[in-house]
Design brief:
The structure is a single chain. The chain is an alpha+beta fold. It is 21% helix and 24% strand. The chain is built from 6 helices and 14 strands. The strands form 3 sheets. The chain has a 6-stranded mixed beta sheet with strand order 4-5-8-7-9-13. A 5-stranded antiparallel beta sheet has the order 1-2-3-14-6, with no helix packed on it. Strands 10-12-11 form a 3-stranded antiparallel beta sheet. The mean pLDDT is 98.
């Protein structure tokens, strides 16, 4: 994992995607035109934010990779586990306005070149998928609700179904997300995860501080689910960046009490 700075902007890239005919990155929050709580490279159309600012931010960032804004594919992101396989015909959905995004969807995948997939995050876990053998990419929105619904496994199954992927070939980048020390949860969240993970796994995923408060390890939970679905451990790269701790670089919905923008994950076959 590296943080690359370019033209007043920055982004995370992944070693497992290096020297491959694809783009797999997550934007940082610097170098844009948005103001106040959205400062400055907000990538999502949100109440109180100017659509023109979002469009300019997206154009600036996407131009680093020679991607036209009008070609991207975005989805509604509802904290579910529905994955949609897209083609060239979907290019432009959610590009210029949020109203045209693919509805009721938290995962996108494609095996078509020059179809940029984008998703937006501010504490939830970006899961970036790539199969170098069949040439396919995908992004999943791994918030705690999506993780409980095992969206990681749903994406793996989508790769197998739509592209004929062998699970041992799939590579996954885990992007910036809320960290273990920062993600305080209640009993309702713990109970939901207890139905998904073993007792031994929960011991690794949950800790209790001296004040009796519980914390959950969201990126490790997604790693466990990826490995359970057959992804090789060596094919998973966690960037180990907490959005909550690094609001200088990323947006954090929890730390900024909901008044914040979103950074963007981009996956595209070249």
């Amino acid at each position: 994992m590296n943080i690359i700075k370019k033209e007043q902007m920055a982004f995370v890239d992944f070693d497992i995607f290096c020297r491959q005919p694809m783009i797999g990155v997550v934007s940082c929050r610097t170098g844009g035109v948005s103001e106040n709580s959205f400062s400055s490279l907000n990538m999502k159309y949100l109440p109180g934010e100017s659509d023109c600012c979002v469009q300019e931010n997206r154009r600036r960032f996407l131009s680093l990779f020679d991607i036209p804004l009008e070609s991207v594919v975005a989805c509604e992101q509802v904290h579910g586990s529905r994955v949609v396989c897209v083609t060239k015909e979907d290019c432009g959905k959610g590009a210029m306005t949020g109203d045209t995004a693919i509805p009721n969807c938290d995962g996108l995948c494609t095996n078509v070149s020059d179809v940029p997939l984008v998703m937006f995050f501010a504490d939830c876990t970006p899961l970036l998928f790539y199969d170098p053998v069949v040439k396919a990419v995908g992004i999943a929105h791994g918030g705690w609700r999506g993780t409980v619904r095992n969206i990681a496994s749903v994406m793996v199954e989508s790769f197998k179904k739509h592209f004929g992927s062998r699970v041992e070939d799939i590579r996954v980048g885990i992007g910036p997300t809320i960290g273990f020390d920062d993600f305080e949860v209640g009993r309702d969240v713990l109970d939901a995860f207890a139905n998904l993970f073993t007792t031994e796994e929960m011991h690794e995923l949950v800790k209790k501080n001296k004040m009796g408060k519980y914390f959950f390890h969201l990126p490790k939970a997604n790693r466990f689910l990826l490995e359970r679905s057959g992804i090789k451990s060596l094919n998973i790269e966690d960037c180990h960046i907490s959005t909550y701790s690094r609001t200088d670089l990323f947006y954090s919905y929890r730390k900024e009490k909901g008044k914040t923008g979103r950074h963007m994950a981009v996956m595209m076959l070249c």
